[in-house]
Amino acid sequence: MNIEGERLSRLARVEREAFDWDLIVARSKTWRPYAAVIFAFWGIWYVFYTAYGFINATDEAPALILPRSLIAIAGVVLSFGVAFVLQRLKSRPLALRALSALALAVVATVIHSFFADWVWAQFFPDDKMTSPFFIAFASNFIVRFWFFASASAMILALSYGVDIRERERQIAALQGLAHSAQLRALRNQLNPHFLFNALNSVAALLSRGDAREAEAMTENLADFLRATLALDPQQLIALDEEISLQNLYLSVEKVRFPERLNVVVDIPDDAKSVLVPALITQPLVENSIKYAVARSTGPVVLRIVARCLDGTLEVVVEDDGGNAVPASSIGERVGLLNVQERLAAHFGEAGRFESGRTAEGGFRNALHLPVTAS
Question: Which domain holds residue 76?
Answer without folding.
Answer: 3-168
